[in-house]
Design brief:
The protein is of the alpha+beta class and about 80 residues long. Helices cover about 35% and strands about 30% of the residues. It is built from two helices and four strands; from the N terminus they run αββαββ. It has a four-stranded antiparallel beta sheet, covered by helices on one side. A hairpin with a 5-residue loop joins strand 3 (about 55-60) and strand 4. The longest helix has 15 residues, at about 5-20. It is globular and about 30 Å long. The N and C termini lie close together (about 10 Å).
Length: about 80
């Protein structure tokens, strides 16, 4: 699992709000970081995947598609 700096988390949350009018939840716990969505949105999912791909990272989604963690591409 990759730990994103809070500045990057803030940037992503702001972009998601601006582009999709959706709230991206960020959770930072002892076990690691993860994000959650309130509803599924294919366009948002593609945006998130591209956003992290540009940084050589990837979003790993839960089975329900509403939560994801971030990992380095080479993991």
């Amino acid at each position: 699992m990759y730990a994103l700096p809070f500045s990057e988390v803030s940037k992503l949350k702001a972009e998601v709000d601006k582009r999709f009018s959706m709230h991206l939840h960020f959770h930072d716990r002892c076990g690691g970081q993860f994000f959650s969505l309130e509803e599924k949105n294919d366009d948002l999912r593609k945006y998130i995947e591209n956003y992290f791909s540009d940084m050589n990272l990837k979003a790993i989604y839960s089975e329900n598609g509403l939560e994801f963690t971030v990992e380095a591409q080479n993991e």
